[in-house]
């Protein structure tokens, strides 16, 4: 089975996105969407979903290092996931995203030094990390 999966790294000011293939278990960064208090321009997200036709959406679930919900951001990420499902009718899964930003920064820095560390790049690379770790979790079941 080879599904196309779109991943999101939710943030209140920016939402990173990535696209991945289940068959290869790899993902590539797409654009980061500007958000206001966690609310993106839904038309931009709709355009991207129409372009890529994903079978499933994965939203990174922000938690603290011990896996507990973060008081302010975790409920907003869940609401974003629910809205994605409600608007586009696609299945949505939440995936633990501990350390995705740290990994994303390290990966970008290796490839492009400090210049690569723009906010949008980091958010979309975080979405790549979230998706690829979702694939790993899927295969380890």
TrEMBL record:
<feature type="domain" description="YqgF/RNase H-like">
    <location>
        <begin position="3"/>
        <end position="104"/>
    </location>
</feature>
<dbReference type="InterPro" id="IPR012337">
    <property type="entry name" value="RNaseH-like_sf"/>
</dbReference>
<protein>
    <recommendedName>
        <fullName>Putative pre-16S rRNA nuclease</fullName>
        <ecNumber>3.1.-.-</ecNumber>
    </recommendedName>
</protein>
<dbReference type="GO" id="GO:0004518">
    <property type="term" value="F:nuclease activity"/>
</dbReference>
<keyword id="KW-0963">Cytoplasm</keyword>
<dbReference type="GO" id="GO:0005829">
    <property type="term" value="C:cytosol"/>
</dbReference>
<dbReference type="InterPro" id="IPR005227">
    <property type="entry name" value="YqgF"/>
</dbReference>
<dbReference type="InterPro" id="IPR037027">
    <property type="entry name" value="YqgF/RNaseH-like_dom_sf"/>
</dbReference>
<dbReference type="GO" id="GO:0000967">
    <property type="term" value="P:rRNA 5'-end processing"/>
</dbReference>
<keyword id="KW-0378">Hydrolase</keyword>
<keyword id="KW-0690">Ribosome biogenesis</keyword>
<comment type="function">
    <text>Could be a nuclease involved in processing of the 5'-end of pre-16S rRNA.</text>
</comment>
<dbReference type="GO" id="GO:0016788">
    <property type="term" value="F:hydrolase activity, acting on ester bonds"/>
</dbReference>
<keyword id="KW-0540">Nuclease</keyword>
<dbReference type="Pfam" id="PF03652">
    <property type="entry name" value="RuvX"/>
</dbReference>
<dbReference type="InterPro" id="IPR006641">
    <property type="entry name" value="YqgF/RNaseH-like_dom"/>
</dbReference>
<comment type="similarity">
    <text>Belongs to the YqgF HJR family.</text>
</comment>
């Amino acid at each position: 089975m080879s599904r196309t999966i779109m991943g999101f790294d939710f943030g209140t000011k920016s939402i990173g996105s990535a696209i991945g293939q289940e068959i290869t278990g790899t993902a590539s960064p797409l654009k980061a969407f500007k958000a206001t208090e966690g609310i993106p321009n839904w038309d931009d997200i709709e355009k991207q979903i129409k372009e890529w036709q994903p079978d499933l959406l994965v939203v990174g679930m922000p938690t603290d290092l011990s896996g507990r919900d973060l008081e302010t951001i975790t409920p907003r990420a869940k609401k974003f996931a629910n809205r994605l499902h409600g608007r586009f009718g696609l299945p949505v899964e939440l995936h633990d995203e501990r350390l995705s930003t740290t990994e994303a920064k390290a990966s970008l820095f290796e490839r492009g030094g400090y210049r690569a560390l723009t906010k949008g790049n980091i958010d979309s690379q975080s979405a790549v990390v979230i998706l690829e770790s979702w694939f790993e979790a899927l295969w380890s079941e």
